[in-house]
User: Fold these one by one.
Assistant:
Number 1:
Amino acid sequence: MNRFLKVFVAVAFMLSLLVLPAQARDNNYWVRIVDANGAEVTTGLTFTIYTAGTSTQATIYDDRNRGSMSNAFDPGTDGVAKWWMVASTCDIEVTDGTTTTKLSTATMTDHLIVFVLDYIELEEGQIDLPIGSMYIVYDDEEGAAAPPDSVQAITGEGVSMVSRVSAPNYDIQNSLGCIVWEDGEESAVEISFRIPADYRSGGTFRVWANTSAVGGNDCSIDYAYYINTDTATADTASDDETAIEVSSIFDGTGASENEYDLSCAGTFAVGSLVTLRLWRDDIDTGTGNLELYHATFYYNKRL
């Protein structure tokens, strides 16, 4: 009898070993969150764990002994989110209440999620486009006049540098150097630049401009741009935008140049070669000079 009891106990023990490891097969997950700069985010986040490829919240545990755990949950004070679950893969959703980031089909070896804020976390970059680097373009696209006598005769399209005698020309107004278009002059000036490696999104040109007209006799500055890449055919059709009216704020004591945003609908990308074209547009009745002092390209930087 004793021998039978011993055998029974031994068999029962072996069976218990076959049952208990079920919990031991649960998978331990842990992940930490960093922002776009690589800095750890330790507060203000909520995690939700889903069964991989579904919108069903998974059953998760607080420890290997399957302690109860809410889903969704906040990470620990160290910013690390930890949980146990049976499945070997899952989808991890992280939110701060405004922005949501999701890591699909995560495994126990995934320990890092980059949480990119869709708001704030944007820094403005700029590229100055000095007027001293601009050149005149002579063609028929904007109804431009033929080159002046000081420029070698050109058939069809051509370019020349801006000078004191060109049209438009360099001048000093308001104690600042500028490019001046007199009434009736519509030849365009251009400048080219590359989109830098820290470009992320957006793109707007901004110019400092003024008119010598007094009162309501305003004139307009028109603009277009070309976007070229090294993997595509040259962009021969510019993105022609709507002219911006430039007003004078001459008040009898002096004049002041104004800053104008030239919005863009084109698609910019890192490395693109962009050419900005500016010219006077006589859609208004103003006869005063159009004065261009500076141009800048603004964009959202990659952090």
Number 2:
Amino acid sequence: MLVLRNPELTATRTLNPAIAAATESTLGGLLNLFPAARRLYVTVTVDLPIRVKGASEKTTILFGTPDTAIFLLKFPVGSGTKLSLRPVAESRAAQAVVDAVMLCEQGLAVAVRFQHVPKWFNEARGICPAAQRNPSYTRIQ
């Protein structure tokens, strides 16, 4: 099942073969919606939108585009849900909105779009020089 917040993401797109080989069973068709996605490895804490204060889940951003992060969650979230992502190496959280959700073997594959792209995400994508100095962010080529 695929749930999209933005219906224009449903356009037919071709998945990068290198990405398909590495993650087909894990993220499945969600990556088809984001053909510009590149592999990342950023461990983050996702603050969950429930009434229990401080509820969170630790996960890893596996792919990213200039303004979108793609990762797995066990906690159920829906399209349009506002989340807060905070990398282990940073104290500042970034606000994001769930754009797409797809069921997969490990729970949910989630794509979120940042409201304001945080510096730590740009560093992880390798577009800031600090990415070379910070070992907690890894861009896999």
Number 3:
Amino acid sequence: MMGVFCFVVALVYCIHVISSSEPIIDIRFLEAYDTGVALINTGDYSAAAQKLEQSLVYNPTSVSAIQLLGILKYKLGSVDESLLYLDKAIELDTYTDLGIAANYVEVLRGAGHVVRAQQEGRKAVLHIGSECKRECVGLLYNLAVVENVLNQSNEAIQLLFQVVSHDSMLLKGWSLLSELLMKRSPAEAEIQLLRAVALHPNDSTLHFMLGTSLQFQGKLNLALEAYLKAEQLDGDNYSLKGNIAATYQSLGRVEEAVKYYQIAVPNSPEDAGLYNNYGALLGIMGKDEEQIAWLEKALELNPYLRPALINLAGYYQDEGDLDKAREFIRRSASPKAFSHSIEVARSSVPLLKLREGLMLSPVVHSWAQMHAERRNMTIALRQIAQEIRSIEASTDNASCPAMSLRHALSPRQIEILKMGGIINQIRASRSG
């Protein structure tokens, strides 16, 4: 809805009161129209709509008045009326005014008519053809949003490249482009984000996203630099502080990590991934009881958070409690846990919150208890590897574009799934 609001403001200042194709019918039209526009500036949308409706009595084919009424009705919650007015504006204008087309796509999407918004947006772009330049940025951006909603990310990315090409200062264009590229390739996202932060050096979100793209690629020192720059610009972003803590943790800088966790955790009551990472760090520090408490809190918020499940499995395996270890490994490999990891990988959330699949406690790499059963390891590893390949094959398909299970599972997590298979194999051989 904010997109529509921006267009209202733009139209108030940019629109011609009467286009050359509109005959002057009555001075009363001008008076009512001008009053309606003035009321829009004051924020009295209801009174503005009444005046614009009055203006149409004197000039029923004024595209300017009809379009503004469509936008105002949408803002006032009258979606059906809004679409009636915008349908009429499109009929009279036939995509000559790109602002009308942009607003039409935005209102259709906001009203839940996403497929129709895609159809109308594509029709408008096709009608404009190669002449589409800076004046069609609003239409291209709104259509890109629709394409993304419909999981047509490649189409959305192509549109957004045009958006930032025509208007390099449009911040939201860079943000959405970078977000979508992050899902496809963090390296691609990094390239565009470096361009974006050069143009918008004071935008904390862009620096935040740049740090995320770098962290995905394992460029931890550069990621930390970007995160700290973002923090300078937005010191109250606790999600950002959580990522800074996780980066320090990955770099082995425990004291700095603890400092940031102690700030982020109390201010992030719904962040299961943050609780998991903090628990993993406490495990590194040998604070087992606190580690377990935070991991369990993470699972209270999200029972299918795989890193927390795996960390608990590793802890109990290290303690020699293979029954509990197997329980948590089994839960981590459940369809619901896999489904959650895939959903996280496809959503925009992990672009700024890497913590969903980031930290695993070092105890999960304790294999001492397994070495005595080495004769079973080869069989178990072969079986688990086959299962993982099968799962990857089932998720790498058309229903999950540009996404594979490798985005949802880290190499360490795959090793832990292997460990789960070994545990099961050992117990099966013992019971036999």
